[in-house]
Automatic annotation (TrEMBL):
Signal peptide boundaries: none
The protein's name in its UniProt record: Phosphatidylethanolamine/phosphatidyl-N-methylethanolamine N-methyltransferase
InterPro entries cross-referenced by the UniProt entry: Methyltransf_11, SAM-dependent_MTases_sf, Thiol_S-MT
Biological process, per Gene Ontology: methylation
Enzyme Commission code(s) on record: 2.1.1.17, 2.1.1.71
Keywords assigned: Methyltransferase, Transferase
Domain annotation Methyltransferase type: ranges: 45-141
SUPFAM superfamilies, per the entry: S-adenosyl-L-methionine-dependent methyltransferases
Keyword Methyltransferase listed: yes
Annotated source species: Azospirillum picis
Entry's Gene Ontology molecular function annotations: phosphatidyl-N-methylethanolamine N-methyltransferase activity; phosphatidylethanolamine N-methyltransferase activity
Transferase among keywords: yes
Enzyme class (EC, first level): transferase
Length: 209
């Protein structure tokens, strides 16, 4: 995976993303935002905001900044914010998740939904999410992680792996590879519909980190 192939994939998806993937991936998106909405007064960074499907669901007493690598997806999100008058959205920026242009500790919470299988450097991206999160803050990941044991699902993931560039994501992506070298503490992980193909992962940055 590289930035150009990611942009190309999501240029193709932008026009129909909401109608297809918006429905297929709704359960993970709702689960993450429901978790985040337990508290107000937060500054939240949504990494890979895409077309902004989740933006209207955030509590209005939270401020949300969204970033994405795809200009085409961001254009849809910007139109959504204007149309729905989402005043709690602080900004939508074109940015590489592996090179965030924010100061250390800028956000109370960082959320990345269906992103980590896409980015060129997952470990570097996780380090950036940790860096811009305040000490003691939360990082919430919704993602597909490869099956931990041999079986039909792992075989299918391996078969799809060579198609990663065309798909725009890595079917054989593992939790261990994403967390390699990370100092984040895993607080919880639970599987999500449909069929347990996706997981909601909650990590916390240490107070002294």
């Amino acid at each position: 995976m590289d930035a150009d192939s990611i942009r190309a994939a999501y240029r193709r998806y932008a026009g129909f993303y909401d109608r297809v993937f918006g429905v297929l991936l709704a359960s993970g998106r709702h689960a993450a935002v429901e978790w985040l909405n337990r508290r107000g007064g937060l500054r939240i960074l949504e990494v890979g905001v895409g077309t902004g499907l989740s933006l209207s669901d955030y509590r209005k007493d939270n401020r949300v900044v969204g970033i994405d690598l795809s200009t085409d997806m961001l254009k849809v999100a910007q139109d959504r914010v204007a149309r729905e008058r989402l005043d709690h959205v602080e900004g939508l920026l074109e940015m590489d998740a592996g090179k965030l242009a924010f100061a250390d500790g800028s956000f109370d919470v960082v959320v990345a939904m269906y992103v980590m299988t896409v980015v060129p450097d997952p470990q570097g991206t996780m380090a950036e999410l940790e860096r811009v999160c305040k000490p003691g803050g939360d990082i919430v990941i919704v993602n597909h992680f490869a099956a931990p044991r041999p079986g039909v699902r792992r075989a299918v993931e391996g078969w799809l792996s060579p198609l990663s560039k065309k798909l725009g994501w890595r079917p054989d992506f593992t939790l261990d590879s994403m967390m390699a070298g990370s100092r984040l503490a895993i607080e919880s992980i639970r599987t999500l519909p449909p069929f347990g193909l996706f997981s909601l992962l909650h990590c916390r940055r240490g107070q002294g980190a």
